[in-house]
Structure formats: structure tokens, C-alpha cells
Write a structure and sequence with these properties.
Distance between the termini: 20 Å
Structural class: alpha/beta
Radius of gyration: 17 Å
Bound molecules: 1,3-dihydroxyacetonephosphate
Number of domains: 1
CATH superfamily: Aldolase class I
Number of strands: 8
Shape: globular
CATH topology: TIM Barrel
CATH class: Alpha Beta
Number of helices: 10
Length: 256
């Protein structure tokens, strides 16, 4: 079985002090009753401090981005080794905001994912269609081609370390969530597409849903067979809301 993974993507939010405050408020609220991996991706400036604040807990540290080069004249960039140094276990690559605002291509995303694996950091590879692409019935074509390009060259033997995040662009920060059925339909398509490069190992790859995930919609999403967790933006900034998501199932008391 795939162990679910819920990750917070703070984007460009929180100072060091705010990240530390989050950790002290959030940690006591996380129940051990739910079998789930949890990670938080703060801005680079808060990685080390947040790592210290989370130290000894089961909450992992994640980066929001990485440069695939090992070192060199790349002003403003952060290397995989620097993320190891900061204590990152995961790294987000190919977020739609980076693709749309900073022109990141599938090929660049694949290089980042490979570079992370090279340093034993698990890549969270994001894919997702825009509203226009969905309405013109190109969702599967777009996601299929993003997957093919963004996973190019990743060794099948490392498949289990890769996480895919399906984040429909129209659902990000809009309060408009894909229904569980809509999300499941795309997750099942992604699972099928992963069988091409990775064979049976595709069954071990965790596929997160992202896009306006909240404590009150996480249970229905997690009930879907191919939804293995969530990548959470806005709601992850609030310790109560993020704990409500991480403690899915247990949060409602609906599980025995
Ligand atoms: P929201 O949860 O704010 O919609 O953001 C989703 C996202 O982009 C996470 O990476």
C-alpha cells in the first residue's frame, strides 16, 4: 500500500519567526493516529530555522524549488547540496506558478528532479492543466505530455521515491476544488501513464492532489483510490487548518 503524503507549500509566505511560531502551534496538534508522511516547504530563508523547530518530530522539511547544477555562477539559485545541508527530504519541482511565471519547461523540471534524486531528496513533480485546456478537452493530452517531459530520464529503480502532485491550475488559490471524482479521473490517468516508463513500480508512486485543499474536503479526496495525499497552499499557512488536513479521517472521528 502507498503511505499517504501531505505537504505544505508555503510559497512566498512567512518569516523565520513566523515559521517557528507555526511549528510550535502545529506540532502538538498532529496526531500519530493517522499513518501519513508530512512535509513542510517554507521559503529558502526559513528552511534551517524551521528544520530546527521541527527537529525530533516526524514532520519532514521540503524545498519549493532547486537548481539542477551542482554549483557555479547562477545568481539567486540554490543547489541540491545546499538543500541536503538545510535538511530537506523532499523538493517541489515544476509547480505551475514556476512554469507560468518563470517559464520553466518540462525538460528543466526533469533535470531538477534527477538532480534531487542524485542527492537522495525525493522530488515532488507537479503537473496540471489550465481552465482553458480543460474546457477544450485537452486535460489528458496536457498532463500526459507534462509527465513524459518532466520525468524523462528518471531511473525506474527510483520510482518509489518520486511523488507526483496533480494541481489543476484553475483550482489553485481559487477556492474552486476539483470534485473527488474529477480528481480521481485524472489521478487514474496519471497512474496509467506512469506504467509506461516505470512498469509495475508505478503502483508505488504517490500521487497528491493540490488545489484549494481544506480540512472539510480532504476526507472525500482521500477516499479516492488513486489519491495518495495532498499538496496544500493557502490552508497550510494556518496551523489549525493544516493539522485538520494532516489528521484526515481522525479529524472527523469518522474512522473507528
Ligand atoms: P492552494 O491550496 O492555495 O489552492 O494552493 C495549492 C498549491 O498550489 C500547492 O502547491
Amino acid at each position: 500500500m502507498r503511505r499517504p503524503i501531505v505537504a505544505a507549500n508555503w510559497k512566498m509566505h512567512k518569516t523565520v519567526a513566523e515559521a517557528e511560531d507555526f511549528a510550535s502551534a502545529f506540532l502538538p496538534k498532529v496526531t500519530d493516529a493517522v499513518d501519513v508522511d508530512v512535509a513542510v516547504a517554507p521559503p529558502f530563508t526559513a528552511l534551517v530555522a524551521l528544520g530546527r523547530a521541527l527537529g525530533g518530530s516526524r514532520i519532514a522539511l521540503a524545498a519549493q524549488n532547486v537548481n539542477p547544477e551542482a554549483q557555479g555562477a547562477f545568481t539567486g539559485e540554490i543547489s541540491p547540496d545546499m538543500l541536503v545541508d538545510a535538511g530537506c527530504a523532499y523538493g517541489i519541482v515544476g509547480h505551475s506558478e514556476r512554469r507560468a511565471l518563470y517559464g520553466e519547461t518540462d525538460e528543466f523540471v526533469a533535470r531538477k528532479a534527477l538532480a534531487l534524486l542524485g542527492r537522495d531528496i525525493r522530488p515532488i513533480v507537479c503537473v496540471g492543466e489550465t481552465l482553458e485546456q480543460r474546457e477544450s478537452k485537452r486535460t489528458f493530452a496536457v498532463i500526459g505530455s507534462q509527465l513524459e517531459g518532466s520525468l524523462a530520464g528518471l531511473p525506474a529503480g527510483r520510482a518509489g521515491e518520486i511523488v507526483i502532485a496533480y494541481e489543476p491550475v484553475w483550482a489553485i488559490g481559487t477556492g474552486r476544488t476539483a470534485t473527488p471524482d474529477m480528481a480521481q479521473e485524472v489521478h487514474a490517468f496519471i497512474r496509467g501513464a506512469l506504467r509506461e516508463p516505470f512498469g509495475a513500480a508505478a503502483e508505488t508512486i504517490r500521487i497528491q492532489y493540490g488545489g484549494s485543499v481544506k480540512p472539510d474536503n480532504i476526507d472525500a479526496l482521500m477516499a479516492q483510490p488513486d489519491i495518495d495525499g495532498a499538496l496544500v497552499g493557502g490552508a497550510s499557512l494556518d496551523p489549525d487548518a493544516f493539522a485538520g488536513i494532516v489528521n484526515f479521517g481522525a479529524a472527523t472521528g469518522s474512522e473507528s
